[in-house]
Amino acid sequence: MNLNSILIGSDNPKRLADYHTKLFGEPGWDQDGYTGWAIGNGWVTVGPHDQVTGKNSHPGRIIWNIESADVKGDFERFKAAGAVVVRDPYNPDESDDTGLIATFSDPDDNYFQLMSPMSSEDVS
Question: What phi and psi, each to the nearest 5 degrees, are found at residue 56?
Answer without folding.
Answer: -70, 120
